[in-house]
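Q: Protein A?
A:
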Amino acid sequence: MSAQSSLTIDEVLREIIKTGKVVIGFRKTIKYVKTGRLKAVVVARNIPREMFSEIIYNARLSEIPAIIYEGGSMDLGASIGRPFPISSIGIIDPGTVSIERIRELASKTS
């Protein structure tokens, strides 16, 4: 087992933020999901049902892995060092994190 596979979702997100490229927020995330420009998407569990459903539905249509963050939007923001709530994160480039690791996290949370 590699060191990367033992990382928690918070640690993986911090690594992606540090070394990769992301978009933050519902509007930007859904725009990128619909155009198929994301490698993965992270969605907070407590966002409004319509927003949650729209992101998950479009991610599945585009075959983009979706990670459902078990904490709330404040927790998602705090996990990446932002002092405000974040409903969703679109991962454009995962940086040093392997796409297989992201898919593994997505399969655990779906």
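Q: Protein B?
A:
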Amino acid sequence: MKTIGEIGEFFRSERLQRDLKLEEMAKRTGLTQVTLRGLLNGQNDSRLSTVLAVAQELGLELALVPAGVAKSVQQRERSGAVESLVSKALRSQSKTPDPVSDRGGTRSDILDNFSESVSRYVRPKF
């Protein structure tokens, strides 16, 4: 995701999937409905703390990955080679067997493997 609009669209989709009312979400995050509506519609340049509060309420976590890794995942997702990471994470919560994996593992296994791959590109700061 590269724009506020894309983030807002993603959050809006996740909110609707969870059948979460805007009023309820505002109460639980401590944000106003106007602020939430602006973020979800991509109409305002929200503060990072607002984005993080909404992500947390939706059970999501903000992760920054190298552009090359993100581009590779997006290309594979478009080609149908991989499922969206959010879908994988949601499936891993229910430990659904993975029909795509040659190993017959769980969605959690796939996320672990992805995390290991990404960690090779992220250098710890000492």
